[in-house]
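Objective 1.3, modelling of assemblies. Example input:
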Amino acid sequence: MKNPITMPVLSDTMQTGRLTRWNKSVGDAIKKGEAIAEVETDKAVLDVEAFADGFLAGPLAATDTDIPVRQVIGYIVDQAPTVAPDTPATPATPATPAAPEPHAAAADAAPVPAVVAQIPAQGNANPVPVPSQASPSAPIKQSPVAESEKSGDHADGVRISPYARALAADLNLDLQQITPGADGVIHASQVLAAALAPQDVDLRMGPPYQIEKPSALRAAVARNMSATLQTPTFLISSRFNLSALHATAKTAKLSFTLALGRACALTVAEDPWFNQVWTRQGLAKRQRVDLGIAVDTGAGLITPVLRDAAVRPSSELAEDWRILLAKVKSGRLLPEDYQGATFYLSNLGIFPEIERFNAIVPTGAAAILAVAAAGSDGLTDFTLSCDHRVIFGADAARFLQRLGKRLEDLSWLT
Amino acid sequence: MAADESVITLGEDVGLYGGTYRVTEGLMAKYGEWRVRDTPISENSFTGLGVGAAMLGLRPVVEIMTINFALFAIDAIINMAAKIPFMSGGQFPMPLTIRMPGGIARQLGAQHSQRLEHTLMNVPGLRIVVPATPQDAYWQLRQAIHSDDALIVLEHELLYFTKEHVDEAAVAPPIHQALLRRQGRDITCIAYSRMVILALEAADILAKEGIAMTVIDLRSLAPIDWDTCVQSVQQTHHCLIVEEDCRFAGAGAELSATLQERCFYFLDRPIQRVAGLDIPTPFNGQLEAASIPRTEDIVNAARQILDTQRGQS
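Predicted structure (tokens):
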């Protein structure tokens, strides 16, 4: 038996995963549940676990390649392979030339039917997307840079399905700006993705440049932020004195961020509008306050989520927060750790130069609070960005009013 | 035969013996030996007899024991039945029905396992229907007898054993209309005769993986209901053709070529065929089974067509 290992779907938003490492080589014995490879997703590095006992078999997908979810990246076989096939292959293309017959009827050993193996063979003489046989010694890496450069001149190499070409013509899209799929061919899905994506910038008249692929984290932030463009937002600001909160948090042995977060969560809990979000079906009223707190990882932005932050005791939240920060540090934050917040807090207070700033309301929430550094008068700027479909000006004013009172009377903290 | 006195049937063993596959059982007792004629083993002669009877106003149903023996009658079929209405300027209609079972049954050897639909498809003037269900066999045979054109009813030897309730009162669709046996948005599978049954099994398996496959039962190979096929392929953008006959220059080749002409701008992947191997059918049972499409071959082909795109869409 030869069972395909596929690129796992590790989050709702995950479309491709970057295979960063194979922990095993072809022919190695593997145990069910063992981590056989590492995948970098939108926001984290995760293990690909073996789903059965057996041996790892090729062709293995090349590392450092973006691979669509569910695509085959390798195989698990029952018996140790007799021939060590280090023939590398790019994903989803059969590594062995198949018989010309229409179906591999008697050939159980080659489960990839010839029907499809013939796709590359029947195509034109273009060698670009057809992997492996030509250079069996060097894995073909689809380096992101090479791929981007390639998109500059599709006319020479990249194949385009008729439907994709017709779609692109109808949608008035420049095929040269569209990156092909993993098989080197532009299909309808790539064209539709390009049509839905924001218009790309035209750099041709500017200085020479080089394209570098953003990290998965950065790309995810870019996607999420672009998605918020539809949100009608207004801003409202106030200034509060935070010295009492600083002092009390210190005596309570609570991090300042956490104390501030708790204050926000309690204030949100008082006004259900702040815990709702606009959806196409209607307003989603959430039954608990899940607080997302923006964290600077050095490599980008991530928002670990404290669940039920208004109700659970501070000690529990503190323990959660400690674990979340450790995961952020090791790059192993899982989707359930950073998705689904109902209200967000972004605190740039550690930068004393920052007088005030505003933040973008992430999709899935109705508001985000931006907290700057304390000014010379001891007051700190609080700017609340609100989705006006959900929250109105007076609601937001009352929110800041209540938050201000809470920051003066700190009985809730002790 | 009860409805129309001009309907007669003739062929080897259709009378006393009731037909090799028992399809004419009891007819001789009911309608007598004038209307149910046993013939000598001479296919060209009794098919020619059918042509002559049709020219003179009868509605003969010629049964050729299997399609393999139609090779003896090819002169009567191609030179006479298919041509006379044209060459007579329409003076002689050809209300002739030739029914013959074909396809790979179980270990009948290369000479008795042929699917010669491509040979007949290439003859202008012949109409060919390929029923896959008992209901269609009933409908299309009746419609064929009613038709004033030379019509071949190609039945599959293995499908003779299918059991299904036949609704005699139901209104039949036009004889050459293709039917959507199952609708799905991801890929269109076009099949006919026994391969429809396999395609439907494959569609069940694929559905469990989240792949929704349309299955079109062509029902007729000449003419082909292109509009139904084209509409579906324009919706799914992927097309898989399944035929039991050999791949080379077969019905699938015609389907693929014409659909490519008509759907080119809607295709997101090359049209693929799953077909019989281009070899004389082996006698060995396992090799024989491996020489024609099996359900898993259809499943795999559909998966392969769609696979690299899934997850991106």
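Confidence is low (pLDDT under 50) at residues 83-153 of chain A.
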